[in-house]
Design a protein that fits this description.
The chain has about 170 residues and is α+β, with helices and mostly antiparallel strands. The protein is built from 3 helices and 5 strands; from the N terminus they run E-E-E-H-E-E-H-H. Strands 3-4-5 form a 3-stranded antiparallel beta sheet, with helices on one face. Strands 1-2 form a two-stranded antiparallel ribbon. Strand 4 (about 65) and strand 5 (about 70-75) form a beta hairpin.
């Protein structure tokens, strides 16, 4: 993700990232979604995992870039940690859908409204989720220092549920 600097309360600078907005990529036949051949599928799964952990349900195709080599750069994390409870991808607090450009929502692979607790069987390897848990533990002091221990706790709660439903064998974390 691009580096962000916020010098004042009303000013934000974001590092320039190369790439094309996913919503501008050629579409799959008969679909509003970008053709999956245009981007790295493992990276889109990891992006969905990250969005699920940070409670970001606004990852529409206008909020991620694809480089010429198929790498993904997420942009616009404005909805991260924004909701008090777990809800379906694209579902706002009032139950209405938002994210005007529609299409793929990478975090939806971790959600299934019909399952108890709402979390779906997912293709993450338990080993990768263990690595991720260790990496998150390393940043817990930053959340605490910023007065966001509640965000950290909610992130770990979501990680617990994702781990309980992890069935994958492919390692994605490097």
């Amino acid at each position: 993700a691009p580096a962000i600097v916020r010098p004042t309360a009303n000013q934000v600078f974001m590092e320039h990232m190369p790439g094309t907005l996913a919503m501008s990529l050629p579409r799959s036949p008969g679909s509003v979604n970008p053709n999956p051949a245009a981007y790295d599928q493992d990276q889109i799964v990891l992006l969905g995992l990250a969005d699920q952990l940070i409670d970001n349900y606004d990852r529409n195709p206008g909020n991620w870039l694809v480089t010429d080599t198929g790498n993904i750069h997420p942009i616009d994390h404005g909805m991260a940690f924004g909701y008090p409870d777990f809800r379906a991808p694209g579902e706002a607090m009032d139950g209405k859908s938002y994210g005007g450009s529609g299409g793929i929502q990478p975090s939806s692979g971790f959600y299934d409204k019909s399952r108890p607790g709402g979390f779906a069987a997912n293709d993450m390897s338990p080993e990768d989720l263990g690595v991720l848990r260790s990496r998150l533990a390393a940043v817990e002091p930053d959340f605490t220092r910023l007065g966001r221990g509640d965000w950290y706790a909610k992130m770990l709660t979501r990680l617990d549920k994702i781990e309980q439903n992890a069935t994958g064998t492919t390692r994605r974390l490097r």
